[in-house]
Amino acid sequence: MGANLEVAAIQEALREAGLDGWLFFDHHRRDPLAYRVLKFSPAQTPTRRWYYFIPAQGEPTKLVHKIESRMLDALPGRAIAYAGWVEQREALRTALGPVKRIAMQYSPECAVPYVAMVDAGTVELVRSLGYEVVSSADLIQRFEAVWSDAQFDQHVRAGVKVDAIRRAAFERIAAEPSTEFGIKTFILGAFEREGLFTDHGPIVAVNEHASDPHYEPSAESSRNIVKGDLVLIDLWAKLREPGAVYYDITWTGYLGASPPARMGEVFAAVAGARDRAVEQVQRAIEAGESIRGFEVDDACRGYLRERGLADYFFHRTGHSIGEDVHGTGANMDNLETHDERRLIRGTCFSIEPGVYLPEFGIRSEVNVHIGERATVTGEVQQGLLRLLP
Fold first, then answer.
1. pLDDT digits (tens, 9 = 90+) for 59-75
2. Is beta strand 247-254 parallel, antiparallel or unpaired with respect to 348-351?
């Protein structure tokens, strides 16, 4: 259904952005963002191309194939039907009308891959008709990545459960002989009992396995966890409720009373980088200033650079969090991409610097939500855990 589509709100956002319209396009459900923003679920799989154009002013236009002429009936606006490819081009020109700058799910050089849903050929087609195509990334963030009050509540409730499970996992490691895979299985079982869902993971990694940021233990790769080991646990989950959003954290511990000095030094550097990034966001939000994803990454990475560790931090500082653990809002990134999107109210993201040395890796991850203030939504690790029986 598309009855809840907020056309007026989208048009206001288009005018604020200096855009003439937003063109949605799909074929065989290739663009899930289009359906989520339009709050629309088709009655059947689209086997022919459809277009939906929301102008900054005026009535939206639906462009559908004649054999699927009712595909967009749930959406408001006038309808145009086409059959042949020549007719399609002319109908698209008619649907767009005398505008110039159009947003689409496109990202220059695929800088924001979460938004790059429209194929290059369709972008070429629209440009060939004389229109300028710009990225809808900022619009997507506004209409897809902003949480409702209910979603924030779901996030907090999930966080309480996930934090408790994380504590229990480390307590289990301290109390009895364990393996990476065994602790992963323990966490997944706890998720199931507590009504939590995750689409993959968690990460339970010992020593050099923790230097692989996306290591996940299997029965074949699993290592015993023994005295003197560093253990990293990265776990993410959401409530099994409609619209629920994720909570995503990483903690590290040492199985023994006295971790090597180098581990303590690296943890302190990682925690310091994490805190600098969080503080930069908090200062900007409290001052009413604009702050962008790449600036947060610069602050975090700069802290590690000052300590000679930046070369061992080879992923972005953080990612948007939503109904998918990697959401569609701004990422804290000036490494993998240069993310210029502003951090806006109602969004949530991770801050998770890591230092990955050949012998061990340490990451510390928190979630930050922007409301009236920027707040860390769960517990914050202040020191390397000592895992003692």
1. 999 999 999 999 999 99
2. unpaired
- 277 CB contacts (<8 Å, ≥6 apart)? 296, 297, 299, 300, 303, 317, 318, 332, 351, 353
Tokens at residue 118, please?
Answer: 């429209």
What would the DSSP string read from start to end of 21-64?
EEEEEESTT--HHHHHHHT---SS---S-EEEEEESSS--EEEE
Pairing mode of beta strands 348-351, 196-197: unpaired
Residue 334, H or E segment: none
Average pLDDT over residues 244-273: 97
Query: In sequence order, which residues have a C-beta less than 8 Å from that of residue 87 and are 6 or more positions away?
Result: none
Structure token pair of residue 353: 């610097």
Q: Please list, in sequence order, all residues whose beta carbon lies within 8 angstroms of the beta carbon of residue 315, skipping any fewer than 6 positions away.
A: 213, 335, 336, 354
CA distance 228 to 318: 30
Query: Which residue in this structure is represented by tokens 């301290």?
Result: 174
Report the C-alpha gap between 10 and 71 in whole angstroms: 21
User: For the whole model, what pTM was predicted?
Assistant: 0.93
* Cα 313 from Cα 270, distance rounded (Å): 10
Q: How far apart are CA 143 and CA 38, in angstroms?
A: 9
Do residues 181 and 202 make contact, with C-beta atoms less than 8 angstroms apart? no
Question: Can you tell me whether residue 12 is helix, strand or coil?
Answer: helix
pLDDT in tens, 159-206: 999 999 999 999 999 999 999 999 999 999 999 999 999 999 999 999
Q: Which amino acid is at 340?
A: E
CB atoms within 10 A of CB 15: 12
Domains, in order of start, for the chain: 7-144 (3.40.350.10), 147-386 (3.90.230.10)
Average pLDDT, the chain: 96
Longest alpha-carbon distance in the chain: 75
Query: What does DSSP say about strands 374-376 and 354-356: parallel, antiparallel, or unpaired?
Result: unpaired
* Pairing of the two strands 178-179 and 78-82: unpaired
Q: Report which DSSP code applies to 142.
A: I
d(CA 158, CA 367): 12
Retrieve residue 50's tokens: 């459809």
- The bridge status of strand 21-26 relative to strand 101-104 is parallel
Q: Note the residue count of the chain.
A: 389
pLDDT in tens, 300-311: 999 999 999 999
